[in-house]
């Protein structure tokens, strides 16, 4: 009998499912990767900024993956109003609002200026009142002005004061620093939570790929290029330590962000994003096992995220348990559906763990 | 009449011309780019480690570009002996020996361990005695061991103590830190040369592309990926300041390193190297002009390098002057010869300066 671990009803709190053919390819792979609950990013073209669009998008996803629970988000922009937040909350149309600094990643051109969030304070207030989470892509846009010096390597660290200020100004707003990549970010989240015995207000999601990558791995391998970029060895170690710590303010958000292979295999303009969805839990299991911390995996992919997001049993469309099974599998070089090809993270490699689902 | 600047007999002290069809394509473009003297890298497969191979390679290059003066180099490896250096010097077969740390860039698998050069000290001694230059690819191989922390962003800075030790151990050996990319490297070269009124023993070559790029520019644009990688805004500024300073220990070495476009447009295993040869001087002119320092360009591309390398008029196969002409030109998207395609630096862009040759 192979070794198994019951991970329960798992959650991935940062998922890109796109639209069209890509949506058709990747949406069913949420469950393939061992994930039951998926928190869906709104950076479509145009972005999701209305209740109708959120509900209609969710309906399309649900049709493609009937056993997956989808939580929807708005894209923070000037189209959002406090009234819209109140209405969306009443209808349970969204669980959160995602904030993209303008120009830092895929489809972020309509994002906001992270140097000044004050125009959005009425929206944040409405979110705080309605228990809607704020999801931050925590990077400052690059600038090579002398004295400013913002680039992909320090863009996250330089964003952290803005996170702290938002928490100070909205102490009851739940905020997630998404896909954090630096020791500085981990330290900031720890500091905010020191001595807190009440509900967690500020947390960070951590991807699978940032537990494996440093800058060297995307230099010359665009398959590993994402935003925020993977940083230095000491940053990777801090992320692994946080993910495997059992601390409730760190939880899984894959930021799985698929692109057609031709958008990754180009000498110019490679799209940022790493596709991990179809093997999400096995990728994580590999890292947790290497640290001798497999017993902490369930907390990271289940308890912490669901607790932070107040996800209740009655919100779930399916209550099957994800079972991690010690069974080797090969990672395909490419995943193909019709004329669409996507290269998965660690394409061509091997993983020690596989996924099964157990109906209760 | 357009503005013109006579740059005299120019030199590019770091050139990759490859073999086969790539050699046939790029060798004539040395002159297209405004360069008269080209210092040729030995990282062929197998590398250049014998007098016969150096002379035979030079002959092939000369046939393709009769007006270009070629200076040849050996690849530092265990095949080199002091006797071979003495013999090569006597025959004027080589001007320098290039040292590649194992595994850091294209065709460097046979390179040396930069943590310990002592095995090569007899070779360095022979080079010192024979006025043969040591060309250093100044990077430590990456390591993510805790406490070591070597990655593409700090690999050059961590190499600098090895440079200083070599200079201390061989004070009369002329050493070039090739394609330097960091403020730390510039500062080290400055410090070594402070107060020196004699011959320059330690210099640095600077590429055209590192005067334009930072880490953001190769994140997502493999056309801009090279080793050493472009670093941070403050590093770029230090390089520009050094190149335009008129200080004689900084000179031009393009490190133009062509690859077929399919080796740059891949989602995995992109080859390191930027092709600048065909527009080398116009790329530089753009940067120097932006700094209001065009009057320093001749020193950078002519006097400093030729002086450091002891290049004399009688060594030249042609004495035409390179004339910089203020005349806009478009950079092609791709350079094609038969079935070989190479994407040039800043493909599809524009340059304000062109090149003409004046026979004397």
TrEMBL record, chains A, B:
<keyword id="KW-0479">Metal-binding</keyword>
<protein>
    <recommendedName>
        <fullName>dihydroorotase</fullName>
        <ecNumber>3.5.2.3</ecNumber>
    </recommendedName>
</protein>
<dbReference type="Pfam" id="PF04909">
    <property type="entry name" value="Amidohydro_2"/>
</dbReference>
<feature type="domain" description="Amidohydrolase-related">
    <location>
        <begin position="78"/>
        <end position="180"/>
    </location>
</feature>
<dbReference type="InterPro" id="IPR004721">
    <property type="entry name" value="DHOdimr"/>
</dbReference>
<dbReference type="InterPro" id="IPR006680">
    <property type="entry name" value="Amidohydro-rel"/>
</dbReference>
<keyword id="KW-0665">Pyrimidine biosynthesis</keyword>
<dbReference type="GO" id="GO:0006207">
    <property type="term" value="P:'de novo' pyrimidine nucleobase biosynthetic process"/>
</dbReference>
<dbReference type="GO" id="GO:0004151">
    <property type="term" value="F:dihydroorotase activity"/>
</dbReference>
<dbReference type="GO" id="GO:0046872">
    <property type="term" value="F:metal ion binding"/>
</dbReference>
<dbReference type="GO" id="GO:0005737">
    <property type="term" value="C:cytoplasm"/>
</dbReference>
<dbReference type="InterPro" id="IPR032466">
    <property type="entry name" value="Metal_Hydrolase"/>
</dbReference>
<dbReference type="GO" id="GO:0006221">
    <property type="term" value="P:pyrimidine nucleotide biosynthetic process"/>
</dbReference>
<comment type="similarity">
    <text>Belongs to the metallo-dependent hydrolases superfamily. DHOase family. Class II DHOase subfamily.</text>
</comment>
<dbReference type="InterPro" id="IPR002195">
    <property type="entry name" value="Dihydroorotase_CS"/>
</dbReference>
<comment type="pathway">
    <text>Pyrimidine metabolism; UMP biosynthesis via de novo pathway; (S)-dihydroorotate from bicarbonate: step 3/3.</text>
</comment>
<keyword id="KW-0862">Zinc</keyword>
<keyword id="KW-0378">Hydrolase</keyword>
